[in-house]
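Key result, reporting period 2: structure in, sequence out.
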């Protein structure tokens, strides 16, 4: 799952054409919003603007400024493209006045401070315009602080919301469950985010990817989350979550390809229903308190490439502990099997003899096996 996305707001649009003209009326309001954007950068770092903004001045129409794209007929700003432009400082709330904006790329910069709640409000300051078409909001990999604004939950068409790898704090707003068009939610790596996962996120029935990893989340995973049948990636690794994994939960997740729940406090058995998520390629459940046997049904996962179960309590110290190994030989794509630091006992099965002359069921494609016990 990609985490390289940086501070960007992305909206796909057609007809992004540039045309110089004199500023008047509503396009003059766009120019004022751009000037404010530049001024917030200056006040944010206390120095000179980046050279990429040096020509943002009255000597030319704002539609000719580097990084600014205007609609040919209306001269309204439809895109602002300033990735990796050495920008620092704060995000101006007046960006919300760019009511025709379809793309805002600010990736690879050093923007900091809080996320302006104005980015999520339906009404935009003095011009009262609505950014109803905002679809992709990327604010990842910056130094943003404070709480996640509840106003972000008012974006009616948002599909991607990426706030990953910042220093955001507080709880996940339950209001995010109102974003019924949301397909990807990434809050990874905000270590100060705390509290429970809101059950309201289970209302996001179009969600395909959710990454809540590397935070300070606690409590159990809400039952409503397991009912999002569109999920392909589910990650809550590196938190303090607890509880059990319901035995039949994967019956409702037919499209799941990756599940990352490692480094938490989950206990109980590994569900045999995993086999019903037939597209699974990555199962990562390490560093929990899971126990019992590894279900042989996992051998039905023909796309499984990584099975990571180290540092659990898996095993019964009985001879049938290794019964799942024969089933795993059906997983022809398996390259990484880690069972380190569990309670498995008994002689190693013949399948672990990687000499194909000695075993017809050897894991011929596997690149890494770890069975150590501390």
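The corresponding designed sequence is given below.
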């Amino acid at each position: 799952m990609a985490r390289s996305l940086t501070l960007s707001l992305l909206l796909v649009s057609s007809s992004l054409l540039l045309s110089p003209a004199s500023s008047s009326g509503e396009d003059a309001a766009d120019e004022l919003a751009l000037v404010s954007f530049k001024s917030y950068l200056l006040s944010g770092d206390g120095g000179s603007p980046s050279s990429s903004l040096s020509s943002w001045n009255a000597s030319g129409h704002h539609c000719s400024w580097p990084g600014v794209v205007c609609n040919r007929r209306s001269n309204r700003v439809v895109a602002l493209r300033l990735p990796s432009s050495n920008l620092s400082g704060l995000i101006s709330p007046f960006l919300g006045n760019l009511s025709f904006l379809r793309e805002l790329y600010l990736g690879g910069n050093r923007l900091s401070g809080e996320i302006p709640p104005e980015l999520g409000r339906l009404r935009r300051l003095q011009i009262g315009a609505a950014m109803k078409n905002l679809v992709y909001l990327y604010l990842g990999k910056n130094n943003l602080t404070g709480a996640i604004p509840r106003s972000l939950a008012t974006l009616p068409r948002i599909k991607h919301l990426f706030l990953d790898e910042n220093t955001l704090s507080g709880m996940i707003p339950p209001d995010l469950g109102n974003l019924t068009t949301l397909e990807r939610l990434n809050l990874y790596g905000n270590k100060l985010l705390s509290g429970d996962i809101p059950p309201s996120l289970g209302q996001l029935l179009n969600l395909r990817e959710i990454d809540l990893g590397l935070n300070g989340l606690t409590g159990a995973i809400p039952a409503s989350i397991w009912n999002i049948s569109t999920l392909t990636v589910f990650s809550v690794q590196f938190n303090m979550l607890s509880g059990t994994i319901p035995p039949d939960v994967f019956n409702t997740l037919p499209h799941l390809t990756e599940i990352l729940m490692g480094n938490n406090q989950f206990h109980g058995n590994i569900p045999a229903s995993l086999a019903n998520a037939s597209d699974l390629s990555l199962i990562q459940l390490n560093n929990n308190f899971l126990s019992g046997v590894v279900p042989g049904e996992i051998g039905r996962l023909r796309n499984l490439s990584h099975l990571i179960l180290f540092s659990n309590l898996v095993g019964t110290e009985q001879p049938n502990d290794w019964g799942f190994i024969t089933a795993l030989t059906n997983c022809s794509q398996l390259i990484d099997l880690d069972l380190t630091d569990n309670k498995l006992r008994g002689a190693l099965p013949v399948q672990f003899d990687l000499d194909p002359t000695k075993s017809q069921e050897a894991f011929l494609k596997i690149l890494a096996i770890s069975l150590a016990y501390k």
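The chain is about 5% helix and 25% strand. The chain has a mean pLDDT of 82. This case is discussed further under Risks and Mitigation.
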